[in-house]
Design a protein that fits this description.
With 253 residues, this protein is of the alpha/beta class. The protein has a single domain, classed as Rossmann fold, CATH 3.40.50.1240. 25% of the residues lie in helices and 15% in strands. The chain has helices spanning 4-8, 72-84, 99-112, 162-179, 191-202; strands at residues 43-50, 90-95, 117-118, 184-189, 220-226, 229-236. It has a 6-stranded mixed β-sheet with strand order 3-2-4-1-5-6.
Length: 253
Protein backbone atom coordinates (compact mmCIF):
# COMPACT_ATOMS: atom_id res chain seq x y z
CA UNK A 1 0.00 0.00 0.00
CA UNK A 2 1.49 3.33 -0.99
CA UNK A 3 0.77 6.94 -0.16
CA UNK A 4 0.41 10.03 -2.37
CA UNK A 5 4.03 10.94 -1.64
CA UNK A 6 5.12 7.46 -2.74
CA UNK A 7 3.13 7.82 -5.95
CA UNK A 8 4.91 11.02 -6.94
CA UNK A 9 8.39 10.01 -5.83
CA UNK A 10 10.77 9.64 -8.76
CA UNK A 11 8.21 10.81 -11.32
CA UNK A 12 9.24 12.74 -14.40
CA UNK A 13 6.99 14.76 -16.68
CA UNK A 14 4.61 12.55 -18.62
CA UNK A 15 5.57 9.49 -16.60
CA UNK A 16 8.90 9.14 -18.40
CA UNK A 17 11.37 6.65 -16.89
CA UNK A 18 13.85 7.89 -14.37
CA UNK A 19 16.81 6.17 -12.78
CA UNK A 20 15.78 5.28 -9.20
CA UNK A 21 17.40 7.01 -6.25
CA UNK A 22 20.30 5.32 -4.56
CA UNK A 23 19.34 3.24 -1.55
CA UNK A 24 21.39 1.79 1.28
CA UNK A 25 23.68 -0.82 -0.31
CA UNK A 26 23.87 -2.98 2.78
CA UNK A 27 21.22 -5.54 1.98
CA UNK A 28 21.83 -9.05 0.73
CA UNK A 29 20.83 -8.30 -2.89
CA UNK A 30 23.09 -9.59 -5.69
CA UNK A 31 23.59 -6.28 -7.46
CA UNK A 32 24.37 -3.60 -4.91
CA UNK A 33 26.58 -1.94 -7.55
CA UNK A 34 25.00 -1.89 -11.01
CA UNK A 35 27.28 -2.85 -13.87
CA UNK A 36 28.62 -1.13 -16.97
CA UNK A 37 27.89 -2.54 -20.40
CA UNK A 38 30.71 -4.53 -21.97
CA UNK A 39 30.93 -4.19 -25.78
CA UNK A 40 29.34 -7.15 -27.52
CA UNK A 41 26.97 -8.06 -24.67
CA UNK A 42 23.33 -8.65 -25.52
CA UNK A 43 21.02 -6.03 -24.04
CA UNK A 44 17.61 -7.20 -22.79
CA UNK A 45 15.03 -5.25 -20.80
CA UNK A 46 12.52 -6.80 -18.39
CA UNK A 47 9.71 -4.46 -17.35
CA UNK A 48 8.08 -5.31 -14.00
CA UNK A 49 4.56 -3.89 -14.27
CA UNK A 50 2.37 -3.57 -11.20
CA UNK A 51 -1.33 -4.15 -11.91
CA UNK A 52 -3.89 -1.33 -12.03
CA UNK A 53 -6.45 -0.27 -9.46
CA UNK A 54 -8.70 -3.02 -8.08
CA UNK A 55 -12.43 -2.72 -7.31
CA UNK A 56 -12.36 -3.17 -3.54
CA UNK A 57 -14.97 -0.92 -1.89
CA UNK A 58 -14.78 -2.81 1.44
CA UNK A 59 -11.06 -2.22 1.78
CA UNK A 60 -10.22 -5.91 2.17
CA UNK A 61 -6.61 -6.99 2.25
CA UNK A 62 -7.25 -9.40 -0.60
CA UNK A 63 -3.77 -10.86 -1.13
CA UNK A 64 -4.19 -14.04 -3.18
CA UNK A 65 -7.95 -14.28 -2.79
CA UNK A 66 -9.81 -14.91 -6.07
CA UNK A 67 -12.54 -12.65 -7.40
CA UNK A 68 -10.80 -9.27 -7.20
CA UNK A 69 -10.88 -7.57 -10.60
CA UNK A 70 -9.71 -4.25 -11.97
CA UNK A 71 -11.96 -1.24 -11.50
CA UNK A 72 -12.85 0.93 -14.50
CA UNK A 73 -9.96 3.19 -13.54
CA UNK A 74 -7.73 0.14 -13.28
CA UNK A 75 -8.62 -0.85 -16.83
CA UNK A 76 -7.70 2.65 -17.98
CA UNK A 77 -4.35 2.20 -16.23
CA UNK A 78 -3.79 -1.10 -18.03
CA UNK A 79 -4.49 0.59 -21.37
CA UNK A 80 -2.11 3.39 -20.44
CA UNK A 81 0.64 0.88 -19.70
CA UNK A 82 0.15 -0.78 -23.09
CA UNK A 83 0.42 2.63 -24.74
CA UNK A 84 3.61 3.35 -22.80
CA UNK A 85 5.15 0.15 -24.17
CA UNK A 86 4.25 1.20 -27.72
CA UNK A 87 7.26 1.37 -30.04
CA UNK A 88 9.25 -1.01 -27.87
CA UNK A 89 10.33 -4.49 -28.85
CA UNK A 90 8.10 -6.42 -26.47
CA UNK A 91 8.43 -10.09 -27.46
CA UNK A 92 7.47 -11.88 -24.23
CA UNK A 93 4.68 -11.30 -21.72
CA UNK A 94 4.31 -12.89 -18.29
CA UNK A 95 1.51 -12.50 -15.74
CA UNK A 96 0.69 -13.48 -12.20
CA UNK A 97 -2.25 -15.92 -12.16
CA UNK A 98 -4.46 -13.52 -10.17
CA UNK A 99 -7.32 -11.83 -12.04
CA UNK A 100 -6.12 -8.26 -11.53
CA UNK A 101 -2.73 -9.04 -13.06
CA UNK A 102 -4.15 -10.97 -16.00
CA UNK A 103 -6.57 -8.15 -16.74
CA UNK A 104 -3.71 -5.64 -16.60
CA UNK A 105 -1.79 -7.77 -19.12
CA UNK A 106 -4.66 -7.92 -21.63
CA UNK A 107 -4.11 -4.58 -23.44
CA UNK A 108 -0.39 -5.25 -23.80
CA UNK A 109 -1.09 -8.78 -25.07
CA UNK A 110 -3.47 -7.36 -27.67
CA UNK A 111 -1.12 -4.56 -28.71
CA UNK A 112 1.80 -6.90 -29.35
CA UNK A 113 -0.05 -10.05 -30.40
CA UNK A 114 1.27 -12.04 -27.45
CA UNK A 115 -0.18 -14.83 -25.33
CA UNK A 116 0.64 -14.15 -21.67
CA UNK A 117 2.61 -16.85 -19.87
CA UNK A 118 1.06 -17.43 -16.44
CA UNK A 119 3.83 -17.73 -13.86
CA UNK A 120 3.11 -18.60 -10.23
CA UNK A 121 6.48 -17.15 -9.24
CA UNK A 122 5.25 -13.57 -9.73
CA UNK A 123 2.07 -13.96 -7.65
CA UNK A 124 1.25 -11.71 -4.69
CA UNK A 125 3.02 -12.48 -1.42
CA UNK A 126 1.24 -14.77 1.03
CA UNK A 127 -0.15 -12.90 4.06
CA UNK A 128 -1.72 -14.02 7.35
CA UNK A 129 -4.08 -11.04 7.26
CA UNK A 130 -5.61 -11.98 3.91
CA UNK A 131 -9.37 -11.37 3.87
CA UNK A 132 -9.28 -8.92 6.77
CA UNK A 133 -9.85 -5.17 6.81
CA UNK A 134 -7.61 -2.61 8.45
CA UNK A 135 -9.25 0.78 8.27
CA UNK A 136 -7.49 3.91 9.44
CA UNK A 137 -8.12 4.36 13.17
CA UNK A 138 -10.29 1.27 13.60
CA UNK A 139 -7.88 -0.28 16.11
CA UNK A 140 -7.67 -3.61 14.30
CA UNK A 141 -3.91 -3.86 14.79
CA UNK A 142 -4.39 -3.60 18.57
CA UNK A 143 -6.41 -6.79 18.78
CA UNK A 144 -4.49 -9.42 20.82
CA UNK A 145 -5.30 -12.20 18.34
CA UNK A 146 -2.97 -10.73 15.73
CA UNK A 147 -0.04 -9.70 17.92
CA UNK A 148 1.81 -12.97 17.41
CA UNK A 149 1.92 -12.33 13.66
CA UNK A 150 3.60 -8.97 14.25
CA UNK A 151 6.50 -10.30 16.32
CA UNK A 152 9.19 -10.14 13.61
CA UNK A 153 9.05 -7.38 10.97
CA UNK A 154 12.43 -8.43 9.56
CA UNK A 155 11.27 -11.80 8.19
CA UNK A 156 8.28 -10.86 8.22
CA UNK A 157 6.32 -13.02 10.65
CA UNK A 158 2.91 -12.12 9.15
CA UNK A 159 3.59 -13.49 5.69
CA UNK A 160 5.89 -14.99 3.09
CA UNK A 161 9.58 -14.44 3.94
CA UNK A 162 11.19 -11.61 2.00
CA UNK A 163 14.03 -13.88 0.89
CA UNK A 164 11.56 -16.32 -0.60
CA UNK A 165 9.80 -13.54 -2.54
CA UNK A 166 13.14 -12.31 -3.85
CA UNK A 167 14.25 -15.78 -4.94
CA UNK A 168 11.12 -16.48 -6.96
CA UNK A 169 10.95 -12.99 -8.52
CA UNK A 170 14.60 -12.98 -9.60
CA UNK A 171 14.19 -16.46 -11.05
CA UNK A 172 11.10 -15.38 -13.01
CA UNK A 173 12.80 -12.20 -14.22
CA UNK A 174 15.83 -14.19 -15.40
CA UNK A 175 13.59 -16.59 -17.33
CA UNK A 176 11.71 -13.66 -18.89
CA UNK A 177 15.07 -12.13 -19.88
CA UNK A 178 16.15 -15.36 -21.55
CA UNK A 179 12.83 -15.68 -23.38
CA UNK A 180 13.12 -12.14 -24.75
CA UNK A 181 16.89 -12.19 -25.32
CA UNK A 182 17.99 -9.09 -27.20
CA UNK A 183 14.48 -7.59 -26.95
CA UNK A 184 12.09 -6.68 -24.10
CA UNK A 185 9.71 -8.57 -21.80
CA UNK A 186 6.84 -7.45 -19.57
CA UNK A 187 6.11 -9.19 -16.26
CA UNK A 188 2.81 -8.22 -14.59
CA UNK A 189 3.04 -8.69 -10.85
CA UNK A 190 2.17 -7.00 -7.54
CA UNK A 191 3.58 -4.24 -5.39
CA UNK A 192 5.51 -6.19 -2.77
CA UNK A 193 7.07 -8.74 -5.17
CA UNK A 194 8.15 -5.96 -7.55
CA UNK A 195 9.57 -3.90 -4.69
CA UNK A 196 11.45 -6.85 -3.25
CA UNK A 197 13.00 -7.59 -6.65
CA UNK A 198 14.14 -3.99 -6.86
CA UNK A 199 15.57 -4.14 -3.33
CA UNK A 200 17.60 -7.19 -4.36
CA UNK A 201 18.84 -5.62 -7.59
CA UNK A 202 19.89 -2.43 -5.80
CA UNK A 203 21.26 -4.06 -2.67
CA UNK A 204 18.68 -2.47 -0.39
CA UNK A 205 17.61 -3.91 2.94
CA UNK A 206 14.64 -6.22 2.59
CA UNK A 207 12.90 -5.01 5.77
CA UNK A 208 11.22 -1.69 4.97
CA UNK A 209 8.32 0.69 5.63
CA UNK A 210 5.53 -0.34 3.18
CA UNK A 211 4.45 3.30 2.92
CA UNK A 212 7.78 4.17 1.29
CA UNK A 213 7.76 1.67 -1.57
CA UNK A 214 8.24 3.39 -4.93
CA UNK A 215 5.81 1.18 -6.81
CA UNK A 216 2.57 2.97 -7.65
CA UNK A 217 -0.40 1.38 -9.38
CA UNK A 218 0.41 0.38 -12.98
CA UNK A 219 3.97 1.61 -12.54
CA UNK A 220 6.87 0.12 -14.48
CA UNK A 221 10.19 -0.89 -12.94
CA UNK A 222 12.50 -1.58 -15.87
CA UNK A 223 15.54 -3.82 -15.44
CA UNK A 224 18.17 -3.64 -18.17
CA UNK A 225 20.42 -6.68 -18.48
CA UNK A 226 23.78 -6.76 -20.26
CA UNK A 227 24.07 -10.48 -20.92
CA UNK A 228 22.88 -11.99 -17.65
CA UNK A 229 24.08 -9.07 -15.50
CA UNK A 230 21.84 -6.26 -14.28
CA UNK A 231 23.18 -3.09 -15.88
CA UNK A 232 20.62 -0.48 -14.77
CA UNK A 233 17.14 0.12 -13.38
CA UNK A 234 14.55 2.77 -14.21
CA UNK A 235 11.11 3.62 -12.88
CA UNK A 236 8.11 5.20 -14.60
CA UNK A 237 4.44 5.90 -13.88
CA UNK A 238 2.46 5.83 -17.14
CA UNK A 239 -0.73 6.54 -15.15
CA UNK A 240 0.74 9.32 -13.03
CA UNK A 241 -2.20 11.64 -13.68
CA UNK A 242 -4.68 8.93 -12.64
CA UNK A 243 -3.09 8.34 -9.25
CA UNK A 244 -3.78 10.08 -5.95
CA UNK A 245 -6.47 8.80 -3.57
CA UNK A 246 -6.97 5.67 -5.69
CA UNK A 247 -3.42 4.56 -5.05
CA UNK A 248 -3.75 4.49 -1.26
CA UNK A 249 -6.91 2.39 -1.33
CA UNK A 250 -5.19 -0.76 -2.52
CA UNK A 251 -4.85 -3.47 0.11
CA UNK A 252 -2.54 -6.42 -0.50
CA UNK A 253 -1.93 -5.25 -4.06
Amino acid sequence: MSTPSDSTAGRTAGGAPESPPAGPATGPGPAATLQSIVPGETITVVHLLRHGEVHNPEGVLYGRLPGYHLSELGRCMAERAAEWFGGREITHLVSSPLERARETAEPTAKAFGLEPVIDERVIEAANEFEGKTFGVGDGALWHPTIWWHLRNPWRPSWGEPYQQIVARMLSAAADARDAALGHEAVVVSHQLPVWMARCAFEGRRYAHDPRKRQCALASVTSVTYAGDRVQSLAYAEPSADLLGPADIQQFGA
